TrEMBL record, chain A:
This is F-box domain-containing protein. SMART domains: FBOX. InterPro entries: F-box-like_dom_sf, F-box_AtFBL13-like, F-box_dom, FBD, FBL60-like. Residues 11-52 form the F-box domain. PANTHER family: RNI-LIKE SUPERFAMILY PROTEIN.
Automatic annotation (TrEMBL), chain B:
Pathway: Protein modification; protein ubiquitination. It comes from the Eukaryota. Keywords: Ubl conjugation pathway. Pfam families: Skp1, Skp1_POZ. Part of a SCF (SKP1-cullin-F-box) protein ligase complex. Residues 69-88 are annotated as: Disordered. SUPFAM superfamilies: POZ domain, Skp1 dimerisation domain-like. Belongs to the SKP1 family. This is SKP1-like protein. Residues 130-170 form the SKP1 component dimerisation domain. Residues 5-62 form the SKP1 component POZ domain.
Amino acid sequence: MPGNIDLFDFLSDSLLILIVSFLPFKEAAKTSILSKRWRYIWHSTRNIEFNESSFSTHHVLPTDGREAQKHVFVDYIRKWMSLYQEPKVDRFRLSISYPYEFHAEIEMWLRAVINRNVDELDLNFYWLGCEGRLPNVHIATHMRKLCMCHCYPLHSSFNISMPSLRSFKYFGSVRGFQLQELTSIEEADLDFGLAYGLPNRRLASISPPLYLEARHLIIKVGLLAKELLGIVMLLIYCPMLDTLSVKLGFGRQVKVGPYGRKFNADDHLYEINLKAFLRRHEVHFQGLKEKLKVVEVEGYRGSRYEEELVHFLMEEAQVLEKITITSMEMVPGDQGHPDKYFQNAQRVLGFGRASHSLTFSINSGNHK
Amino acid sequence: MSSTKIFLKSSDDKTFEIDETAARASETLKNIIDGGCLDGVIPLPNVSSNILPKVIEYCKKHGGDNGSSKKIANGGVDKDKEILPDYDEEEDKREKVRVDELKKWEEEYMDFDQQVLYDLMLAANYLHIKGLLDLTVEKAASMIRGRTPDQIRENFNINSDFTPEEEEEMILIEDEWDDEWAFD
């Protein structure tokens, strides 16, 4: 009577473990109540995810506050990880706010999953504008996906070759470190922390040898002098690129410079003559000239460096088919001039261009 | 070069023919072939004649394609050399069509009842056919995803063998997961 047979009886525990590994962590956990056999199967899932913001427990009163909750969360992970026996981990996700005091343990967990050949690593250490540092671990070179959210390597000597990496996401302030030999990369998403009020550091510090095979690159940045150069540098190393999306935000206008002196980030200190720089360094944009087809710019205001970027792309990209510019919309409480931004956006129609088949779509952010 | 034929015998003593290139989609068969122990017919005591044609169908579709792409060949090149592979746009389009077509094929291929799913999963596991194992395991997971424990038990005829006390405890855990792990 096939109707009464528990079909999972045919399968070994190792196959059940494979099945729960295809479930989100929470759903894998729920299989523990199906029957005695399923009780501990999920403890071997290869898809591990601990997310502080969705973890809380009856044992802690709300009045005990965040710190107490975080300790319960960490206790839970500690216990779970200490029981983990599987030889292979597919994915490890950890979201924990400001994990400063738990660094040693996080380091241990990361070592554990890296030793188990983890394919995807996803870390988020964000808390109220603060970032956490990546524990001192040697990120595995065979990893396929790496996502670092507000989690930065401490040393600029963090330098690693990742020939298998397909997807790289980095959210947070710009730090000096290098990922090398990214020969398999398909997707790169770099967000240098504009939405989070983090200090906007030098993008220009992204340095070769870094070849991104990405076809579509999304950059979120406040475009100031240094960022302009940084983006241009980045383009050199993306010779396969056919679509470039630039999402502009407000840069941090005022910074504290050396000796506590306040200066504007557009200060002459950072004045860069893009063309002279590129000539001096004999930079070639073969990929950009022959491959780039689509450029999308959001949040355009028409500042000097924004214009310079669009102008540069139009002059270099010979097969460019479409430029879409959406001007910056009215931000509540902001003194901006959306109409002016829209007018500025239309100025790009008059720029010189290398491509004969270029079409434009200029939109006002307020009419979206 | 035309491919050598290999003969596979199911658990119920029926013999099936498969090209060597297709058979190589299975690690187990590949090892037998490479090991030179190929002596006429390969017996597969764990795979019945209901399932074996289905397995062969998969291998035919995926034979010769062992997942290695030019990207892997490109790893660890001499840094001084140009490391950019030739990029052919037409090739890229063909690749996309091929992937779409394969997805459609997989969808049709995977349309069968639960019993077949388990038998196929066991066969894929036994023959070490990674792609087929992933397909079947993922399908089983999709039948669990988003369902309540009761629905899962009913769907798969799972007998909850907890004692009443344990049952009580389980319900508490269930509630806890529902309330406290509000993911998504």
